Input
Amino acid sequence: MADGLYLGKVFDSKTEGLGDEFRLRASDLTTHGIVIGMTGSGKTGLSVCLIEEALRDGIPVIVIDPKGDMANLALAFPNLQPAEFRPWVDEDAAAREGKTSDEAAEAAAATWSKGLADWGITAGDVAAYAASRDIHIITPGSTAGVPLNLIESLDPPSAEVMADEEEFRDQIDGVVTALLGLIGIKADPIESREYILLATLIDHAWRQNHALTLEALIGQVATPPIDKVGALPLDVVYPPGDRNKLMLSLNNLLASPLMAAWRQGEPADVDSWLRAPDGRPRATIVYTSHLDEEQRVFVTALILNKIVSWVRRQPGSSELRALLYMDEIFGYFPPTANPPTKKPLLTLLKQARAYGLGVLLSTQNPVDLDYRGLGNMGFWAIGRLQTTQDQARIRTGIESALADSDFASSFDDLIAGVQKRVFLIHDIHRKQPELVHSRFAMSYLRGPITREELEGLVDKSGSGAPATPKAASTQAGSAPTAAPTPAPTPIAAISTPPPLPAPLKARFLNQHGGNLARPHLYVKAAVRYKVGRSATPEQTHSIAFPIDPGVGPAEVLAATPLQVDEGQIGDSPPQGVTYGDLPSYVAVDGAKAIDRALRERLDDCFAIDLLYDPVTKTAAEPEESADAFAYRLQNTPAAEAKRRALQTKIDTKRASVSDRKSEVSARGMEKWASLGTSILANIGLLSGKKKTVTGVGGVLSKQRMESTARNRVERLEDEVATLEEELARISDIDTTRFETRSLKPAKTDVAIIRYDILWVT
Output
């Protein structure tokens, strides 16, 4: 495909119109890529389209699929006929919509035929694509697909890997960490005796170019071919009795019937995963949806290490030789932790481009990804993001690209244009970022495929024959019967939603199951409230205002809105309903009148009553109770710091009180001693021998000193009591001091995320 990979068309966010086709050069993916977007953004659809285009271009793809979505790549139906879709429709969803399975299949076939035609793709194109590629679905630990032998054989890596000591150690680390994870032992390269022993045994075997089976490894745990670990005898580091426990745990992997599927099937051979026996490019899907988390990590780590070893055997290439796609990277390549999948992924991102392997990852949140990985990716496809933190993670890269181009739009303008199936695409090989609406996938995107559904979908012969979808099931042992005469199809009301001017879109919500769809103005907005220096966390609201065709948009916002669950809103119109009238301003002024009203009046719709604490000048969060608010105030870092400071002051004052009381006691003793001395000195007055009184001044001085000391004690005790009252106010907040304040957010604190015309039945 000389013209490149057809991913979609350039999107104009102002008019919501489509422009030129957006085609990506396959070689651009040698610098790796990331597809980012929250659930419902169209992330899976774009990834499927990219893989389809790679296969059409003759480029094989290895897919690691922890959710089961990517098995949809096998559902490319050459004729786009209902019979091809019929085995794969969701019968429960069809029943909820009041359709039979046949009707749902007809609807799916019609949707795919029209959707592909809208993007210039014919049934002939789908047939040619389906015939030109092979889908190979591997199910480690299961025979539902092609089983994979991962624990029976632990072959040494390639000579190129063994020549690189660091890479060789990483390969051992991945195998040992994953293997211990299967038996519930958390590996630690420094502290774990289990890790150190297994790593030493595998290192010893591989350096002699000996392949290990799990059975052989278990035998070596019991009777190791080594005498020492480090500087100490093996039996000192890991006594035989303790080694037996590890041996028994590993033996359970062999003995357990549940582990039988792990020891059969094809070997992990990357070359066979890239091409079918007849030479067609393969999409090898490593399906891990049926596994638990530890098993997924084990499988993924081993496969990534196999790919690293394969890469090292390849000659250098500037063209894309193969593509590795990993869906939902969360937990496999985190910023801080180090699961056994992280090292091989980072190695591939740093080195695989020189050998023609592109790595494409997918995630809902860019903060889930190690920053070193993001920095090694030249292709970013950014869909709708959940948080401002996610936007901040990718802002720098996009703004840097904008600075190097003559593009007029800012990052905020571009990210605001992102919506369902619209992605902000940044490719370091292009002059500027683009907004791109992804094309319709040739594969039927019916959602995750279960392990049971794989049974009839997978070719286990290894012949490379195209995968054949399952046949519709019949009751066991029953003879085929003639198809029943279909019941008359009820005639749907001849009514369609009124046309809307761009950028308004019609959306649909079945709330009561009626046959009349009433218009509502659906608004999704993020809101926060400020009281003084305090601001509540931002909250997202989805509401719908009933539209009275006889009033203007400002009056519409005065009505009481419905609280709406966005997940229940659909984009496909229901059948058999009629539609209410829309006001004339929708057709005449389009979104402008609605947009003006929202910006002027929407803040009034979010007026609420909040508790307010006048002491700390802090506002409660919406719907926060007085007790919960008090508890939060008591446990803020500032309150805790103030408590510590007050307690320190109280302890200091109490120590001073104790010292002053001792001083009072001393002054009292001095006073009485002075008084006694004075009395004795003045006894002569009574006998007539003395003519003047002596010592009175000293007694009075001692009296004053004692009184001063007592005053200091009383003052300090008053200060302690005041501090204790203040500490009590912080530690035990009286909720009666809270005030209720009616608040509405400032206009700048209401961010409109989207608005549409919502038809509610």
Notes: Residues 465-494 have pLDDT under 50 and may be disordered. The two ends are 47 Å apart (CA to CA). The longest strand covers residues 516-527. The CA atoms of residues 395 and 412 lie 9 Å apart.
